[in-house]
Design a protein that fits this description.
Number of helices of chain B: 16
Oligomer: heterodimer
Order of helices and strands of chain A: HEHEHHEHHEHEEHEHEHEHH
Strand content of chain B: 15-25%
Number of strands of chain B: 14
Low-confidence stretches of chain B: none
Order of helices and strands of chain B: EEHHEHEHEHEHHEHEHHEHEHEEHEHHEH
Structural class of chain B: alpha/beta
Bound molecules: pyridoxal-5'-phosphate
Structural class of chain A: alpha/beta
Chain lengths: 268, 390
Amino acid sequence: MGRIEKVFAEGKNPAFIGFTVAGDPDKTTCIRIARALIAGGTDILELGIPFSDPVADGPAIQKADERALGAGTTPSSVFEIVREIRKESDVPIVFLTYYNIVYRRGIDRFYREAHDAGVDGILIADMPVEESGEACNAAQRYCIDPVFLISQTTSDTRIGTIAAEARGYLYLVAVLGVTGVRNQVSEGAIDLLERVRRHTSLPLAIGFGISTPLQAQTCIRAGADGIIVGSALVEIVERNLNNPAAMEQELKDYVSAMKNAIVMSHPV
Amino acid sequence: MTRRGRYGKYGGQYVSETLMGALIDLESAYAQAATDPEFARVLAGYQAEYAGRETPLTFCPNASDKLGCKIYLKREDLVHGGSHKLNNTLGQALLAKQMGKKRLIAETGAGQHGVATAIVGAALGMPVDVYMGEVDTQRQALNVFRMELMGARVIPVRSGTRTLKDAINEALRDWVANVRDTYYLIGSVVGPHPYPLIVRNFQSIIGREAREQIMRKEGRLPDAVVACVGGGSNAIGIFYPFLADDVELIGVEAGGEGIETGRHSATLCAGDAGVLHGTLSYLLQDEHGQVLPTHSISAGLDYPGVGPEHAMLRDSRRVTYAAVNDPEVLDAFRFLSKTEGIIPALESAHAVAYVMENAERFDKDDIVIINLSGRGDKDVSEVAAMKGLS
Ligand SMILES: Cc1ncc(COP(=O)(O)O)c(C=O)c1O
């Protein structure tokens, strides 16, 4: 059983999936951030590979990408970060990035290097299933789960097509819009969970806009198998750039609180 | 074009899942409109009565004399609004209306596409939001005022390089959030399928007219057609109807301070394959796939990508792509103003500069059509500030 599959196995609690931008604010601090997220109870670590033009992202993650690129982050240094984390943890690692980063390195080479470093899944934000042939083949060659987005605007037919290609989990987009903290979980998100559930038995993780324990609980009660938090974590990083120790503590406490809420709301 | 909006290996739909439904809807709405005689009739009406088509193909005796070949200008500068951009915005806004969309958004570099979108928004009664890089709102301030005067809201973009690329990023982010009732009216032959196809077809009226006009005036096809290339819409618009002919087609990119300095926007001359804004095409990028900052004296060409059909035409060598630098562009700006009394947009002045630089390539009887994609009023104060008028 793969690392991602184990997280969602029968009888397990729903997952807390934490996102941070690889190399933000620099390589060493990013590794400390990853440690803090794992210590707090993160079940799957999503690492964003920074891109100059992150059109799916709101201001918080845009700024994190800029910090990471400013610190000289490249795909090679991101692979090094993964290898460092792998030395001490078995947490599943999923890359989130944009097509050009993968295309530029060579699709086959990128997936091979990702596998060798210990990556478990890859989601390319601007790669709809129609354009995913080459990437899915490479993913299969190197035992990497291709993770796909499903949105409120995705038709039932497309949900079927996407679910047939996806492995690991499906990433449900809770809002119409880019990443960033929102006040509430929309009704559309709840409907989406129910609609996708009718089409697939893959684990459903939901993200975009989720930041509070209450929001997480709402999604778990509606049937989500995992909660993805990105911008809220990145904002903690941004607030504590001058104090890494405080940053680590706050990240760890935040993740524990979220994880607790998720476990408690899980219908037994 | 082959499968799913491909031009050779280029093109495609590299967008987030949220936008796929909208692109699929757009594709079918356009397919329907493209064969609907009523749509064609309404569009032709606006083109004739509102936009001022057909535009003249002006013979330039003085410039011809000086450059040693027969120079014709396709006068897109005379289209209402001052550039070819209205050809596209009229078509797409009518499409948006037909699709029941309530609001138009657009990006703009030089401001010409923003102006053309503001025009159709006012004419068709649709609210318009235009994203414009903060750098461009300063160097094209006149156009900001024009857009606002016509009721559009101009949103300055402060992220990234604060130019056209980042304006497109912000427009895409807006579209993702408001995709159900908002139509993204993209301004060039870039972006995901079906935009490069739709924009090319609406702009092809330039080449269809020019081909007919030159046959009427000269009784033969031209030897060369020259156009500037930013995203590539005015160029593909005039090239497309000549693709099957024995006519040399030349696309002129912004060489900026010189390709060797790295401060330029000559994507097809100096870039290589990559994905930006939903399409696989040529791209100015670093070895890791990060998009590079660009430079051009003209805001409308200051873009690191280019339409995917141009990428295919470059690889097949059907079109020749070249670059001219800022100083030569300023010379051409002054040259056309003085010799013909026509002030070209700095973008269009790139095409003029190419012919000036390569005049020895053409014989006295050679016919060269330059696509004068826009008028230069918007650029006069900026050029004056550079002390470039005399
Ligand atoms: C007058 C004019 N010409 C050309 C361009 C470049 O666009 P394209 O290459 O799509 O024609 C612009 C863009 O703003 C423009 O205003």
